[in-house]
Amino acid sequence: MSKWPDLFSVEGKYVLVEPLSADHEADLRESAADGQLHKLWYTMIPEPADVAAEIKRRLSLRESGSMLPFAIVDKNTGRAVGMTTYMNIDAGNRRIEIGSTWYRQSVQKSAMNTECKLLLLRHAFEKLDCIAVEFRTHFVNVQSRRAIERLGARFDGVLRSHMIMANGTIRDTAVYSIIASEWPTVEAHLTWQLEKPRS
Q: What domains does the chain contain, in order, with CATH numbers?
């Protein structure tokens, strides 16, 4: 039985977003070491030594139909600089979440995240006919919340005591979404963000 959505790749000016595989391990190990991102207690970024296991975990979730994982490839270098996914896939209601996203520190705050989100949102709304795309993050992760808001997603609320983190703390999860009727405006906004003159 086929899984929804089917495997696909999308490409822009800055990034290639392609299905995650074990071939990305070496690049992603190096990326995970850039900035020691795994030490951020409120995120779930693997240690470099655990990247292979994280790839395997994400691919197993693909087999179960709940996730479609991607590698984010920097088109300038041809190397993977992070991961993202379609997750919490609800085929019956044509809803997905874009999440479990991280980038190596040296490319954060570049155009890559904006373009990656634009490409994945466009595929979700225009190819998959999604009625909504969600984004979730730890309530205390202000950097992530601001990035989600800059995309044009609207705040839906907080799932209190939603998850137990690796360090034993309880995560309150901030939930955002973009619905299909908002997509044209969001697309125009993200396209402008990528095209506007940079100082």
A: 10-195 (3.40.630.30)
